[in-house]
Structure formats: structure tokens, C-alpha cells
Design goal:
9-stranded mixed beta sheet; 31% helix; 17 strands; 10 helices; Rossmann fold; globular; Dihydrodipicolinate Reductase, domain 2
Length: 352
């Protein structure tokens, strides 16, 4: 099988698992040849650590002919610029979530990719794992009958106890909806289809955060985005349910995603993982069972979406973690905040 050459932009914490998997479980399809970031010293250190052939300055990276696909692992506020420059340079682009900081910018990137005949897509790719794919297959097979409703909970008290540089979690483009919402919403739209309307509310009950680990311990950060968001989503298939994301609460044990249908109920695993137990309640009998996996991707398989993109390029087909799905999710996330600001339901225009 011909390997697709890729280059990574960004050397942050998330890059380790991508690089490990590109050089391991996905190495039969992808060949990692270059890495770049704003600081060349950091790029060189990463290249030396992992044996990556080329550590490049930013300008050299975009103009290089050493690879065909850019994997964008920068912070959210840089996603639009990196994606745009990559596409303008004639390269396919796979980006970490979200696609951009706004639905409008996402549409601009999609139009540019289509104009140039290039692939554009990105994270999260956890929905391609065994957990979510098993739920999708169960819904498709009619195990729960007609989908009626759902609940989705992403609850924690923030990331500063674990992250030495948590700034971006609380800046524009951060917050629990934009940071963790993509995992939940991408899973839901694969299980239930496109969202048609959103009603949301939000708040910011803790206006400042203190760094508690690393060299910046004690530094106080302003919170520039809502950190507690809740609302209702209506899907095109008629299913209606509620979603809550929060960086402000001390969580109790709640199912990450539960689907309710006319014939049964499914308790889905954490959509930020690739595996996890899938529990099914058969309505008439009242019996619970555990559904068997439909694929083997149960461990941390980050880069699975890049693998599929590379295969799609080779086979001339559409990719699964595509930009239109990403931007539909981004429009839904934007709609939570727009609905909260306007005090009204927001109709979702995009489909995928």
C-alpha cells in the first residue's frame, strides 16, 4: 500500500499521541516526515525525540514539497489561519477541533478546499472508534426503534488542576462547549443525523481561574467565555433531548450519552474515548445486555481520522471526519451561545 506523507503543525501536548500512533498503529498508511511550530527549537526537539526527518520553520513548512497532508495541532485561535495557508499551498488539511472559531470562517475554509479540489476535515475522530460506531450500528439496525430523545453530560470543575497552561480553555474559542462539545455533538450527529434547532442558556459563575500546577502556579487567569452551558437540541429525525457542558461543577456519576427510543434505550460510552461499554435495555423484556464491538479500535487511536483521510485520497472517495460535518457541529455550538444571547431558538442551516 502506498503511504501518504504528512507534516504536523504544532508541538503541543496533544502531538505526542498523534506522533506515537502515526509511527505505530497507522504507519502502514501514513508516513510522518516533517514537523513545525512557532518555535523552531521546540520543533527540532520534537523531531529529535521521535526521529522525524524534518523540523521546519513555518514558512518553509507551507512551501515544502516533502509531504501532501498537513495535520493541524495548533490552539483553536490558530486553526483558521493554519488551515487557510495549508489549503492555499495546495495541501490537504486535517485539523484538531474546532474547524475554526466561527461557522462563517468554517464555510470559507470549505469553499477554499472545494475550489482547489483538496480534502479538509478533522477531529474529533473518536466517533470512528468501537464505542460510538457500535451505537451507530445499533440505532441503524433499529434496536431502540424510532429515536425519541437523549441526554448528554460533560461535567467537570475545569482543567487548571492538571494543565500548566490552561489559558485557552477560558479564552474565546474555549469553554466546555467548544473544547469538549465536539466529542459529544459529533457522536450524536453520527448516531441521530443532523441537528435542526437549538435552544440554549449559559453562565460564567467563576470569572477568574488560578493556575495550580507548573511554573505558573498562582497566576490568575480571566475567564472570557461562558463556562456552564445547557440547552435542548432537536434533530431532523424528530429526536429531542438535552445537553449540559460545564467547567464549574463537581460531577456525580452520570451517563455521558443516553439514547431513548420507542423500543429500547442505549447507554453510550464516553465519546472522548474510542472504546467503552455499550449497555442496551430491550424495552419489552426489561433486560439489559452489553453490545459487542463492531470494530477493533478500542484504545486511544488518535489519528484514525487522518488514516481515513489518507485512504480516501488514495481511493478517490469522501472522508468520514469531513469538514462539512465539523462545521455543522460548529454551527450547533455557536447556536447555543447565540440562543443564550438572544433568548430564542436558533434554526440550524447546515447539513452534512
Amino acid at each position: 500500500m502506498k503511504k501518504t506523507r504528512i507534516g504536523i503543525m504544532g508541538c503541543g501536548a496533544i502531538s505526542d499521541i498523534y506522533i506515537t500512533n502515526f509511527q505505530g498503529m497507522h504507519s502502514d498508511v501514513v508516513e510522518l516526515v516533517a514537523i513545525s511550530s512557532r518555535r523552531i527549537e521546540r520543533s527540532r526537539a520534537c523531531a529529535e525525540k521521535y526521529g522525524i526527518p524534518y523540523a521546519m520553520e513555518v514558512e518553509e513548512f507551507y512551501s515544502s514539497d516533502k509531504f501532501d497532508v498537513i495535520v493541524n495541532l495548533t490552539v483553536p485561535k490558530a486553526h483558521y489561519e493554519v488551515c487557510r495557508r495549508g489549503l492555499e499551498a495546495g495541501k490537504h488539511v486535517y485539523t484538531e477541533k474546532p474547524l475554526s472559531l466561527s461557522f462563517r470562517e468554517g464555510e470559507e475554509l470549505i469553499a477554499l478546499a472545494e475550489e482547489k479540489g483538496l480534502y479538509l476535515g478533522g477531529a474529533p475522530d473518536t466517533f470512528l472508534g468501537a464505542g460510538v460506531q457500535t451505537v451507530c450500528k445499533a440505532v441503524e439496525d433499529g434496536l431502540i426503534g424510532q429515536p425519541v430523545g437523549f441526554t448528554a453530560f460533560m461535567l467537570c470543575h475545569g482543567w487548571e488542576p492538571f494543565h500548566p497552561n490552561p489559558d485557552f480553555y477560558y479564552a474565546k474559542g474555549g469553554g466546555p462547549m467548544y473544547d469538549m462539545g465536539p466529542y459529544y455533538l459529533t457522536a450524536l450527529v453520527n448516531m441521530l443525523g443532523p441537528v435542526s434547532a437549538v435552544s440554549g442558556m449559559n453562565s460564567n459563575p467563576i470569572p477568574h481561574r488560578e493556575v495550580v500546577v507548573g511554573p505558573r502556579t498562582g497566576e490568575v487567569l480571566p475567564v472570557e467565555t461562558p463556562t456552564h452551558i445547557a440547552g435542548t437540541l432537536k434533530f431532523e429525525n424528530g429526536a429531542i433531548g438535552s445537553m449540559m457542558t460545564s467547567f464549574d461543577v463537581y460531577p456525580i456519576e452520570l451517563p455521558h450519552i443516553t439514547l431513548f427510543g420507542t423500543k429500547g434505550t442505549i447507554v453510550a460510552p464516553d465519546p472522548n474515548t474510542f472504546g467503552g461499554e455499550i449497555r442496551y435495555l430491550e424495552g419489552e423484556s426489561g433486560q439489559w445486555s452489553t453490545l459487542p464491538y463492531v470494530n477493533s479500535y478500542t484504545e486511544n487511536s488518535r489519528g484514525l481520522g487522518v488514516r481515513d483521510m489518507c485512504l480516501a485520497i488514495e481511493e478517490g472517495r469522501s472522508m468520514k471526519a469531513n469538514a462539512r460535518m465539523m462545521n455543522h457541529v460548529l454551527e450547533v455550538m455557536d447556536a447555543f451561545h447565540e440562543s443564550a444571547d438572544k433568548g430564542t431558538e436558533v434554526i440550524i442551516s447546515s447539513r452534512f
